[in-house]
Amino acid sequence: MTSTSRDVARAAGVSVATVSRAFSETGAVSETTRRKVLAEARRLGYSPNPAARRLITGRSGNIGLIVPDLANPFFADIIKGVQRRAREARQAILVADTDEQARMECDALRSLARQVDGVILASPRSAIEDLPHDLNIPIVLIHREAPGWWSVSADFAEGVRQALVNVRALGHEHVAYAAGPIQSWSGGMRTASLRRHAAELGVTLYELGSVAPTIDGGLAAADLALATPATALIAYNDVVALGAMRRLTARGVSVPRDMSVVGCDNTMLSQLSVPALTTVGVPRYEAGEAAVALLERSLADADAVPVQQVLPTSLVIRDSTAPPRPS
Amino acid sequence: MTSTSRDVARAAGVSVATVSRAFSETGAVSETTRRKVLAEARRLGYSPNPAARRLITGRSGNIGLIVPDLANPFFADIIKGVQRRAREARQAILVADTDEQARMECDALRSLARQVDGVILASPRSAIEDLPHDLNIPIVLIHREAPGWWSVSADFAEGVRQALVNVRALGHEHVAYAAGPIQSWSGGMRTASLRRHAAELGVTLYELGSVAPTIDGGLAAADLALATPATALIAYNDVVALGAMRRLTARGVSVPRDMSVVGCDNTMLSQLSVPALTTVGVPRYEAGEAAVALLERSLADADAVPVQQVLPTSLVIRDSTAPPRPS
DNA sequence: CAACTTGACGGAAACGTTTACGTCGCGCTT
DNA sequence: AAGCGCGACGTAAACGTTTCCGTCAAGTTG
Questions:
Q1: Contacts of residue B80 in chain A, CB cutoff 8 Å?
Q2: Minimal-distance CA residue of chain A relative to B73
Q3: In angstroms, how far is the first alpha carbon of chain B from the final one?
Q4: Residue A57 has pLDDT above 80, yes or no
Q5: CA atoms within a 13 Å half-sphere pointing along the CA-CB vector of B70
Q6: Which of B70, B94, B267, B274 is the mutation pick for testing A, counting most A CBs within 10 A?
């Protein structure tokens, strides 16, 4: 049905080796025969069989991408970044959704291992030591740093610091913080940063503990916050912030008049809400692109020393923050 | 580095053919030797090389998925459905994002063609006749029907009919409709259905024309709606509805007291908004699953006659609709 | 008991490339 | 004029499976 390199070789009056060389950029072939071969190939509708090529070169030409939840807009942007950079490198991407389950990360990793040249693992829920390390393909982590691993993450510590500084500048002295899942590495960064900077900024931090990273988690966080003297609430992410705003409004607490709210991630949601959410901007698209770039580097030089890239974050001020009401 | 079937064969004292048979479910091999082979394979860390397998069987074991925009929550759910069903069938999925561009659909189709066993094309922006049809792999369309093509779509006509009936039952006699992009097949279905049923239900339909399927499009739609006597607005999708609600609120028009708003798709957004959005529920997860099922059928029997599956839709009533204010 | 089926297994030929190696002209040096 | 280097190209051996035959023993039938 589909034609092979032999067909093209015959038609162009050359050997299959020459056909192969005409298609691989590096091949030593004269310009005239290359043109001849390419023309003949087009006429016959020939394109190299990727399976055969992969069998001999060992390169599959595609990379794996593992995310906790595709429906989470946070990861959607990461995928788009990966996608774009991968397309330039003529790589296809194989995506796996793990439904937020750590075990599925390992399964996905294993089943992808033989199919791809390398894997990008976004916001892994697993502990690093639980990840299989015997599948000799490069792995790049997103939003998780670990010694000896390639990774690209964002400077969450700086982002929430900016949030705290801003809220303090508005006049808030009592700030509540709703943390996310304990396994979240980036969440840990945020908590640590807030603790570190609260004292030196002269704000009292009320840690509300860990809530689910969902709307419902946000509802709970709002009630917890109202039980403290806090006049501002920093949330684990935008979704929690939105949930909190909804609950606050429902309980007659006006945002930002009675309570300022800050989210994290700057997802699409933060622009949609009313009032629009002040949030910590996290580069997602760029993280995806950077991860592919790192993967390419580790693919090019198998024993390159892993780099841990950190992308900048910055506060995006919208309408959910304001000075506290004079009491 | 990695061991091959030959290594396993040698270790187990059998031939490579037997190793192959032990791994392919169908192979005629005695239970005892199969167990022996599998044990030896596990010990050596062997797993069949997918490239070699593909080269000879012609099956790649993965399917392609092309979507206009990964960041659109609408498609995210479709992917999750595809993902789930594909995992059961031990298939990996290769995803391509076309950035809403019709041309990229063709490019993606072509570059995927040799890599996958079949392709699922969600909400194609291209005209059917522009799609390449010479790449002899099965294609399943989502949310687009065309004679001679496999497809799974939703009964948008019924969904918006229900919306119209409901709004009419609440007492609205003047209803505005903001349509989406003209290339949208499903949008066409909605428009046609509204036109068909408006008269018989005794409602006057104000067609606002086509707006961008974005928040900004929704802002525009709101202004257009306010220029008509309409007391209810049906929007192309949830995003447009949200944009409209925002604009209406900004202009001092209370939703749903002064104006009822109905969205379409029942995306996550519709639950997040305040007030929560009444919307037409469209099965996305199920559509993804169904598409894979269809793909499997057409893979199993190459000249099966294409089926066009239609999934049910139903109105989800939330807080953005209410009886019109007595004037 | 001979002939025949049946099931388990090995040998070997594919599948369609890439690439190491060899050959062959051609132009250049000495 | 002989030797040499070099670029272009062909030959053939991989890559790791699956699968078509063929063989052989064990059971089954007439």
A1: 70-71, 97
A2: A71
A3: 81
A4: yes
A5: 24
A6: B70
